[in-house]
Write a structure and sequence with these properties.
- With 159 residues, the chain is an alpha/beta fold.
- The chain has 2 domains: 108 residues, Rossmann fold (3-Layer(aba) Sandwich); 46 residues, no CATH class.
- Helices cover 53% and strands 15% of the residues.
- Strands 1-2-3-4 form a 4-stranded parallel beta sheet, with helices on one face.
- Strand 3, helix 8 and strand 4 form a beta-alpha-beta unit.
- Helix 2 packs across helix 7.
């Protein structure tokens, strides 16, 4: 089911974004779910992607049930989880989290994320991953870089 979802998702990106804009090939930049979207588009439609810069993400499989559970308790619960993971949140970041549409977040975590690392490596699309020094995904990004030739840049965290 995840593979079918991912394939159709990449088709939507191509059709509704690149095709509608008349863009044959693009450089993609995204953070979080946007970074994962950029990676998936490169993995599934490499002929449409020149290069990707993706932050706060990796191409490996990821279970999202815990996110669904936190979100079921409301945005305040979601904010507390983020706050705990980063050792606090600025007022600005908390307001940004609370301003999210819960339906959009629910859609983003509705399915577990499939492993797209092999397809991404085969794509030969240049990849830059950037993550905070304390991001729990950082070791996964390094592992992917070792196997694929991607570049990883470590950022200082500032939530």
């Amino acid at each position: 089911m995840c593979r079918k979802y991912s394939t159709s998702f990449a088709q939507i990106i191509r059709r509704q974004t690149l095709d509608d804009a008349g863009i044959e090939r693009a450089d993609l930049l995204g953070f979080g779910m946007g970074g994962r979207t950029a990676l998936a588009t490169a993995a599934l439609a490499p002929e449409r992607v020149h290069a990707v810069a993706a932050g706060g993400t990796h191409p490996y499989a990821e279970q999202t049930q815990c996110y669904r559970d936190w979100l079921a308790e409301g945005l305040e619960s979601w904010a507390k989880v983020v706050e705990g993971a980063y050792g606090g949140l600025s007022d600005h970041t908390r307001k940004r989290i609370m301003a999210n549409d819960p339906r959009a977040i629910a859609a983003a975590v509705a399915l577990d994320r499939p492993d797209i690392s092999d397809a991404l490596t085969r794509s030969k699309v240049p990849i830059l991953l950037f993550l905070g020094k304390d991001d729990p995904r950082y070791p996964l990004a390094l592992s992917f870089a070792e196997h694929s030739g991607a570049t990883v840049t470590q950022l200082w965290s500032s939530v």
